[in-house]
Specification:
alpha+beta; two-stranded antiparallel ribbon
């Protein structure tokens, strides 16, 4: 097509850091808006879902997530602090198990 070409565009990386606490799962929908002198175009929404119950981050909620959580909890690893209260304690176990039994969105 006349007037259509290939363009190499360098855009700085955008990073958003969100801490998930309290055994919560999170779903984010985001869009990209590109603007120039000719106007603006908006992309379709990209959806990102993070499930606190998928503790080992393998993409599925399964029994190994419980063992991975408990290993972190016994090691006093900060990733086991899931109840939203500073410090690692027994309530973190209950918060994680509540999220695990609730499943992932």
């Amino acid at each position: 097509m006349p007037g259509i070409g290939t363009f190499d565009i360098s855009i700085p990386e955008v990073m958003v850091a969100i801490a998930i606490t309290g055994g919560l799962s999170l779903t984010i929908a985001t869009r990209c808006v590109v603007t120039n002198d000719c106007g603006s175009e908006t992309s379709d929404a990209a959806t990102i879902t993070v499930c606190a119950a998928d503790f080992d981050c393998d993409g599925a909620r399964a029994v190994p997530d419980i063992f991975a959580f408990l290993a972190s909890w016994f090691a006093q690893d900060s990733s086991a602090d899931v109840d939203g209260v500073p410090g690692i304690g027994v309530p973190d176990i209950f918060s994680f198990l509540s999220a695990w039994f609730a499943g992932c969105p």
